[in-house]
C-alpha cells in the first residue's frame, strides 16, 4: 500500500479556504487532529483531514456551535468506524441522533433560503431605485456626469 501524501497547514488552508488561525483553533477545540507531525514539529494533514475540515466549514453557515460540530463529527466517526463498528443498539441510537441533526440542518437551510430571497429582493429594489433616479436627472445633471437622459443615435 502506498504511503498517504501529507500536506502542511498552508496548503490545507489554501485548499479549504480556511485561515491558518481557524485551522489551529479547530485543532485546539478538538474538531481536527493533524494526522502527523514533521521532524520539525510542523502539522501534517492528509486528504481525510482536508475532507473533515470541509465538513466543518460547511457546518459553519448553519450556525452549529463548536460543541454541536464536535458531537456530529463524533457520531459520523463512530458510524464510519471500520476497526470497531458499533453494535446494533448503539448504531440505532447514533442514527437517531444523526437524523435529528439532519432535521435541524434542513430547517436552517430553509431559513437561509428565505433570508437570501429577502436579500435578493432588497438588491432588486436598490437597482430599481438607481435606474429610476438615473431617468429622473435633469439635463444639466446628466451633462455634468457625462450622460444623457435619452441617448441620441450616433451620426456619421
Protein described:
The longest helix is centred in the last third of the chain and has 48 residues, at 88-135. With 156 residues, the protein is mainly alpha-helical. 63% of the residues lie in helices and 4% in strands. The chain is elongated and about 80 Å long. Helix 4 packs across helix 5. A hairpin with a 5-residue loop joins strand 2 (36-37) and strand 3. It has a three-stranded antiparallel β-sheet with strand order 1-3-2. The model has no long low-confidence stretch (mean pLDDT 89). The N and C termini lie far apart (75 Å).
Strand and helix map with partners:
Blueprint: E1 7-8, H1 9-16, H2 20-28, E2 36-37, E3 43-45, H3 47-59, H4 66-79, H5 88-135, H6 139-145
Antiparallel strand pairs: 1-3, 2-3
Helix pairs in contact: 4-5
- Basic shape: elongated
Proportion of beta-strand residues: under 5%
Q: Helical percent range?
A: 55-70%
Q: How would you write the strand order of the largest sheet?
A: 1-3-2
Instruction: Give the averaged pLDDT, no decimals.
Output: 89
The strand count comes to 3
**Sheet of most strands:** 3 strands, antiparallel
Amino acid at each position: 500500500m502506498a504511503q498517504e501524501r501529507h500536506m502542511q497547514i498552508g496548503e490545507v488552508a489554501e485548499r479549504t479556504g480556511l485561515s491558518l488561525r481557524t485551522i489551529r483553533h479547530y485543532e485546539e477545540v478538538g474538531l481536527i487532529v493533524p494526522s502527523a507531525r514533521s521532524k520539525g514539529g510542523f502539522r501534517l494533514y492528509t486528504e481525510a483531514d482536508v475532507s473533515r475540515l470541509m465538513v466543518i466549514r460547511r457546518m459553519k453557515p448553519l450556525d452549529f456551535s463548536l460543541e454541536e460540530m464536535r458531537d456530529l463529527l463524533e457520531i459520523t466517526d463512530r458510524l464510519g468506524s471500520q476497526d470497531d463498528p458499533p453494535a446494533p443498539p448503539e448504531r440505532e441510537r447514533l442514527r437517531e441522533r444523526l437524523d435529528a441533526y439532519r432535521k435541524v440542518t434542513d430547517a436552517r437551510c430553509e431559513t437561509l433560503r428565505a433570508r437570501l430571497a429577502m436579500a435578493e429582493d432588497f438588491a432588486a429594489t436598490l437597482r430599481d431605485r438607481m435606474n429610476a433616479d438615473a431617468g429622473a436627472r435633469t439635463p444639466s445633471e446628466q451633462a455634468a456626469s457625462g450622460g444623457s437622459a435619452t441617448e441620441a443615435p450616433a451620426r456619421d
